[in-house]
Design brief:
It is a single chain. The chain is α+β, with helices and mostly antiparallel strands. The chain has 11 helices and 51 strands. It is 20% helix and 41% strand. Strands 6, 8, 11, 12, 13, 14, 15 and 17 form an 8-stranded antiparallel β-sheet that branches. It has a 5-stranded mixed barrel with strand order 1-2-3-5-4. The protein starts with a helix and ends with a strand. The N terminus is likely disordered.
Length: 1014
Amino acid sequence: MRFALLVVLLLEPVWAAVGADITNLAALRLNATQNPKESFSIHLAGDVWWANPAQNEFVIKDGSGVEEVQMDLRGVPVKAGQTVELTGRATIMPSGANLRLGPLGPVVDNDGVHIMVEKSGSVYLTAGRNPFRLEWFNGVEKYGLKVEFEGPGLPRGQIPDNALFRGADGGENGLDYVCVEAPSEMLPDFDLAAPLKRGTTTNLDLSVITQPERVALCFTGFLNVPRDGSYTFYTTSDDGSRLFVGRPMLQLTITGQAALPAPQIGGPWTQLEGKATFVSRRRDGVNVELSAPSGRAEVEIADPAGLDAESLLNHRIRATGYHQKSSGGEDAAPGRLLVPSAREIVILPSAGEAPSEMTNRDGLPVLVTAAEIHRLKREEAERHYPVKLRGVVTSEFPERQAFTLQDGTRGLYVIDYSESRTDRPRIGEFLEVEGMTGSGEFAPIVVARHVESLGRADLPEPVHPTRDQLMNGSLDAQYVELQGILTDVQSNGVILLTPDGRIRSELRPSGLELQDLKAYEDALVRVRGCLFATWNYITHQVKVGEIRIYGADINVEQPAPANLFLTPRKRAADLSLFDPQASVFQRVMVSGQIIHVRQPDCFLMDGASGVRFVAKNSERLEVGDLVDIVGFPELSSGLPVLREAVARKTGHAPLPMPRELGVDGLTHSELDATLVRIKATLVNERSAPGGQALEMRVGLRSFLALLPAPGVDIRDVPLGSQVELAGAYASQGIGQDAASFGLLLNSPADITVLARPPWWTLGKLFVILGALACVLAFSALWITQLRRKVGQRTAELEVQIRERQRAEQQHAMEQERARIAQDLHDELGSGLTEISMLGIRAKSESAPAPAKGSYLEQMSGKARQMVTALDEIVWAMNPTHDSLESMVSYFSLYAERFLGLAGIAWRLEDGIGPVDYALDSRRRHQLFLAFKEALTNIVRHSGATEVTLAIKVEQNRLRLAVADNGRGLNDGDPQDGMDGVANMQARLAKLGGRSEVSGKTGIGTRVQFDLPLQ
């Protein structure tokens, strides 16, 4: 009874503080917890331990406790080591570890893009007119705003018009407003935005906006309240809004100076030592991540003046400040340390600068955390660094006289050859180990010289590793927890299906044999234990996909289903749809027919859709089986796959008719695991793992058809055959335009030959080669005859020249012979060489049949070109054509053939007259080349649809004009940069004539040749 009375007397001042004036921090905390949003009269004093005015935050200490407080400091430069007084009235709200006294900014902050959302906030207001400001904006589509309040004697309701006032002194009813643009998804800065509209309104009226979207309003004025008290405001808006009401009623006054307390271990003002692993500068201070033996802590330095923040990184430091505990309570991790200034930060000597008592005889530093040891390379660990660390045993290996020890940084493998203990370490035992480092077989280890038990301890909080961390060996010897489905128990390990995929683990459970885990098969379990990587003992490289967990404890979260085939059924087409019940460990059952089996994958067709599955049971599945499949759906590849599936046969039936695919619908991921039929051309055939791969082509797209039966001879289907294939579609991409696909055939019976290879065969190839050889022989004979005729013509010319002007005509003859020889060499020599090379390629046995056909076609085309070239040369040399009429006929024939191939109409204007004129071969040849150049330019550059040819004789001069209706020339000089025009002018100049080109943009081009007839 006396003890109870004493407790009542001690707590009576605190209870009396509830709802009354607040004079100490204990009452402040109690009222914040029991009366949130209520306003209180506050008058208390205390010492400031830490302050960050930029965040309106400080730590204050009085006789009843220590609190971290947030309030509107209004620029007061509060610092650690000062005594202050808080006086006034404010609401009190818990805010994490802090106490918030009154609003720091808006009373209600409802900013952002959202639908009509309601938020509320409270503020203490004095009777009369209080400053009022409401900001609102709308992004796109619908918008709205509703503001309500309640207070002493006022029920909740909208703000009446007569309570709102405007003007500098609030002398008129209403509110001032300004309308601006809102380009982003947050409220704009009204002080910087250009106004679209200004005005006054009686209340919060949105009808004054200038546009329905991307618009913002700011209402300002005063709110009149009838009495003092705490008022709660409610804003409902679409999109964002902010409400500011009243003036800060609580004031902070600096009253003097006070010394900071001495640090105490476990107290609110304490010291932490550790390594600075991360340092970041902020506008309001410096944050340091500190790695200490007890865990990681965040150090926030409010005033870093005089501190070189970068010098802290990777150094051991001692920080003194206010210890803000984490949410785990007194025994939780270090949490957050609020350091007032740089004076409370001390950089400790590095490991290399440690005193002699902290080094060994080789001068190596003593390592005191597991993380320091683990960061050593194996070569460095062989130097035998001295070690002294404390931690809890997470697994034991009595057969090797070893165990794993984990401190606040990580775990390590320890070999215990010491004589300091007679009993072996147990899991959960807290030990102090002294020894030295060793290289270990995979990662650095500790060889213990002295081991001392310090009692029992809780096992550390397990790490929840990602798949990469499990596979790369970085968490070797670390205490971890895995969650997954225990899908299979084997003689040397288990298969665990985790959220990151399938993992094979060598598992050593505590107190159980491996085969005892058969009872947990197909159950959802959590496994805790010490993780070890699996590596090659020769190369020391990690074996990807395998891990070991020793000292494992297994917790069954969801027992294995009594009957897997009572799992809810789904259609294959629904596996990619939204399902609120879906999860990584949620089984589904799909029924359908097996259309293809390719270990370990099977393809199942359910109606018009399909799904792949990987069966874990050994029941033999065959094409045509009707089955129920229970497994875990996986969509990581974009295609639905059932993992760890169990199959149950329900019957057997013929396969359904395949779906016919055309050229335009070949690539679509929704076809995956369905039967399709495709018509294609066999391009190539080769061996593949487990069968044969047929390279097929449809149009311009190629794909592979895989035939799983090795040794099947399909040589009776020759390359180039048109075939029809029926098989399972295997998509290799996602979406309507998958990257590629394959076709999985069940047997050669799925191949139907529609047509044998085309006309090109080996026998016909030799016939064509023989024919081309005859053409070449005939061409050679023809060239010989042409040369003989050229010789005869040359002799005749020499006689004529001697009879006239021997010296001058001799020179002309030499030029003519050189020209003809050059033409023969250029036009025929290179052509014959090319035909010879194409013939050699076509005869090559290594050339594929399609390529040989291409070579033969090229030889035929080249032969036709040579015939045309020879025809031009013969026409130019033949004296029977030395007339204007013959030239006009040949020019017309050439224009008909050349322009006709280009799809351009042409016509010849009549204007030659009844009298024919003589033209020698030289003039005819040069004029033809210029005419040919003009037609070539029209086809290549003009874009014309019609060409007009005019040939007439005036004053013993031949005038030839070629005109088109194309795009014409630029307005500048038509000859600039045009080699063809220059060539034509040069040819006409040799004959004593001239060439002119004229035209304008859009009205065509005209080329005229003027040549004397003699």
